[in-house]
Q: What sequence folds into this?
């Protein structure tokens, strides 16, 4: 899950990983251009990722989290 959405400055991503692994999150704009990305180490079970979007312009973004055992994407609105 992602909250809050729409986001003003900070967004919190909560996800459950079936195994511990390294994954990457990537934020793309509406045109598909990568604007932010970062590698994360996921532990088995609940993980929380905090992302600061305060410097990003207002608009629609897509957040994708991908690894060997995870591949999820969600649409975000930045106010």
A:
């Amino acid at each position: 899950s992602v909250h809050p959405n729409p986001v003003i400055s900070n967004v919190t991503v909560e996800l459950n990983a079936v195994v511990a692994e390294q994954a990457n999150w990537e934020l793309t704009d509406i045109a598909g251009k990568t604007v932010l990305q970062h590698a994360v180490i996921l532990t088995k079970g609940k993980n929380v990722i905090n992302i600061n979007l305060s410097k990003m312009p207002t608009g629609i973004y897509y957040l994708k989290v991908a690894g060997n055992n995870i591949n999820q994407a969600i649409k975000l609105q930045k106010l």
